[in-house]
Design a protein that fits this description.
With 621 residues, the protein is of the alpha/beta class. It contains 26 helices and 16 strands. The strands form four sheets. It has a six-stranded parallel sheet. A six-stranded parallel sheet has the order 9-8-7-10-11-12, with helices on both faces. It has a two-stranded antiparallel sheet with strand order 13-16.
Length: 621
């Protein structure tokens, strides 16, 4: 996305202007011929070539002198005297449009509905706006740098020039009625200011826009996600923070899935200290874990071996494992404390790898290493990936289509992976923390139901997330939104997993859940009932999804034991769900029973559609 997006301009305007030009030229030529014949037929009127040209030009201002006399006129002149004023009228309309273009664009931006607002002057903001527009989204770009006429023409943007942190500027971009807002400046603090302003502008909407804030430090991004998760129940705003490495790593295996056809262990090498290595490691493990889960019976997926090579590989692996405890179960990871030059000299490449990632701190050094060491290509069974941020154009030169493939890819062995380009994926950005946790909650529900003897497909909820009805997805998202209320009730908070003891859940937090499991499960059921009744479900036996009747829509004390136990399992699963996402629950209050939760008021956040529903929502099956 370094240049104009294919299909992003509209040829209709250009064709229309070509028609106008043909009309004007036709009127000029026919007018000249017509006046020449008319004046030649009247020998008493002296004239020369300049008189004919002058009269011809007068046609365009409705004032040709020979036409003051009655006809008949030559047919060429008859056509020209109507075509010329038409061309003049069209020219006036076009000139007015150009003069008022900026004002028209401002008005269209302010009155836009259901659009995406992209804030920022950064390269990523420009690329994201291009990508959204190419996918058919209506886009309003807010930035401090003025838009040029050619840029408007090329991108067909609705643009607003001004400070994107200003509520008035954002209001001028139609933000109160936007569907999605992206804060993508090069300054994290300005991105937070945009989110603050957006929150004030859209807080009263029934279905507020989703706001995605770019954070440039991956550790800070995770910490802010934890704090947002703890506050989500107090605000109906769908807000999340993202880092381009995480989004691009998740996109990596969509575009380049890792496969194995030999049955032997799959080997991956991740080398270097670049920021992309952690994201690549986690995405690789998750991709293989998903393959293992989806493998058909009798066709097991071979094991995955990952070699991590960097001067600090041992420390990095220890941190990654404590942060993401699923890593050892998804793959076998070994650390080698070598730099990139040491990797080439060590002979490790002779082992043969199905995929290599060269993640240098300076992407130019990593690219130079990949280009200058044929042994990397020889020892890679598949591809050598080099993540690049500032060299997306060079990546396009390597990996264009057949007509624009300018550089040799070494028979497909060398792959420059443009991180910013791949991170401009609105679908993956939308798979925010709320979405990922909701999916994990659903996966836990499937596992618990299968242990209870329920088979896949027996009920609407017993299907993969991709096939889950949207009402049940909303229920799971609502459960995530309600995590904040549960944490407050337990006297706990969410934090990124850190330190040598981060591998296990906080025993105080687990004890708090166990001590209050019945109370929390009952609150969960009551919340589920409110959410279901809000969608017009009523109590009824037997269950009837068509008529929206459910036997569990009754007081807690009247529920069968197995239904109550399902609610308890949902509460017990919270630490594990958070752990899979890189978080842990931390107990703050010393009282093992925890402080009493705040009184729930009708119409409060817990009663809203976004804060009620969920894994209990899985009962709508």
């Amino acid at each position: 996305m370094t240049g104009p997006v294919p299909g992003a301009y509209r040829p209709a305007g250009r064709s229309l202007r070509a028609v106008f030009a043909v009309i004007g030229l036709l009127a000029l030529v026919l007018g000249f011929i017509g006046f020449e014949r008319l004046l030649r037929a009247e020998p008493d009127t002296g004239h020369d070539l300049y008189d004919v040209i002058y009269y011809d030009l007068q046609l365009f201002v409705l004032g040709a002198e020979p036409l003051q006399e009655p006809g008949p006129y030559p047919w060429q002149l008859q056509v020209a005297r109507f075509a010329a004023p038409l061309f003049t009228l069209l020219a006036v309309v076009e000139a007015s449009r150009l003069l008022l273009a900026a004002e028209i664009r401002r008005l269209r931006a302010r009155r836009a509905r259901g659009h995406a607002v992209v804030c920022g002057d950064s390269q990523f903001a420009h690329m994201l706006a291009d990508r959204l527009f190419s996918e058919g989204e209506r886009v309003v770009v807010v930035r401090a740098e003025p838009f040029g006429p050619l840029e408007y023409r090329r991108h067909r943007y609705l643009g607003v020039t001004g400070d994107p942190t200003s509520p008035e500027v954002l209001r001028g971009a139609g933000l109160p009625h936007a569907r999605t807002v992206y804060a993508c400046t090069d300054d994290d603090d300005r991105n937070h200011a945009i989110a603050n302003a957006a929150s004030r502008l859209i807080q009263d909407r029934r279905q507020p826009a989703r706001v995605y804030v770019q954070v440039h430090d991956p550790e800070m991004c995770l910490s802010l996600q934890a704090r947002r998760l703890g506050a989500a129940g107090s605000s109906r705003l769908r807000l999340d923070y993202f880092h381009v490495d995480d989004v691009a790593a998740r996109a990596l295996y969509r575009h380049h899935p890792l496969t194995s056809t030999t049955g032997r262990p799959v080997r991956v090498l991740i080398a270097g200290r670049g920021s992309f290595r952690r994201a690549a490691l986690v995405a690789t493990a998750r991709h293989w874990q998903l393959r293992q889960a989806e493998a058909p019976a009798g066709r097991p997926v071979p094991p995955l071996h990952v070699d991590l090579v960097a001067p600090d590989a041992t420390a990095e692996l220890a941190l990654a494992t404590t942060r993401h405890p699923f890593l050892p179960t998804a793959c076998e990871v070994r650390a080698y404390d070598l730099d990139l030059d040491g990797l080439v000299d060590s002979g490790m490449l002779r082992r043969g790898y199905d995929r290599l990632y060269v993640c240098a701190v300076d992407e130019r050094n990593g690219l130079q290493l990949a280009l200058d060491n044929p042994e990397l290509w020889q020892r890679a069974e598949s591809t050598v990936f080099v993540p690049v941020y500032r060299q997306a154009a060079l990546a396009a030169a390597f990996h264009g289509d057949r007509r624009h493939d300018l550089l040799d890819e070494v028979h497909g062995r060398l792959q420059l992976y443009p991180v910013l380009t791949r991170a401009c994926d609105a679908e993956l950005i939308a798979e925010d923390l709320t979405e990922r946790l909701a999916r994990q909650i659903h996966d836990k529900y499937l596992q618990s139901q299968e242990r209870a003897g329920v088979r896949r497909g027996d009920t609407p909820a017993m299907v993969d997330w991709a096939r889950l009805p949207e009402s049940l997805r909303r229920a799971n998202r609502a459960h995530v939104q309600d995590i904040a209320a549960k944490l407050l009730s337990l006297g706990c908070v969410v934090a990124p997993r850190h330190g040598p003891t981060a591998g296990a859940a906080d025993p105080d937090a687990v004890r708090a859940i166990d001590d209050r499991i019945d109370e929390l499960a009952q609150l969960e059921h009551e919340r589920w009932c409110r959410e279901r009744r809000g969608e017009d479900w009523v109590y009824g036996e037997p269950r009837d999804d068509t008529r929206r009747r459910h036997p569990a829509l009754r007081p807690w004390d009247e529920l069968p034991w197995d239904v109550q136990e399902t609610n308890r399992d949902e509460i017990r699963a919270l630490p594990e769900v958070l752990s899979d996402a890189g978080f842990e629950m931390i107990r703050l209050t010393p009282d093992p029973t925890g402080p009493p939760g705040p009184p729930r008021q009708a119409g409060g956040p817990e009663d809203s559609p976004r804060a009620s529903g969920d894994a209990s929502g899985e009962r709508i099956v």
